[in-house]
Each structure stands twice: as C-alpha cells, then as structure tokens.
Task: structure prediction
Amino acid sequence: MASATIKNLMNDIRQLSPDEQFELVSEVLSNLRQQQTMPRKPKRSLYGIAAHTGKAPSADEIDDARRDVWQNFPREDI
Result:
C-alpha cells in the first residue's frame, strides 16, 4: 500500500512545473538537514529489557522442559 501512495505522489509531483518541483525538493532537503542536526534520543539498551519477568530458568530447568516436551514425540528408531 505504501508503494501505491508513493506512485500517486510521484504522479502528482510530475504535474508540477519545474520551478514548483525544484521548490518542493529544496523544502524536503531543508527539512532533512534540520532533522539531521536535531539531537537524537538515545536508544534503549536491550540488556535487561525482560528484567520485569523475573528470574530466568536455569540450564537444568530448560533441559527438563525439553525432555518433557520431546518425551512422547513420535519417532522412528533407526
């Protein structure tokens, strides 16, 4: 859907005069330059993102859970 919107926008831009197209491009570039110089909000680290969920399971607990899940899984012995 976004590509259809871009195609529509490009068709509208083509209908502008060259002077209007130049003015539009100048405004867009100016806007991009302003955004580039704005201080960016620091990104949040992914470490600790799930800390609110509590203690992580131990390796032994994970192994036990795997054993329980795969215990009744149908398989053919070779």
In short: The chain is about 60% helix and 0% strand.
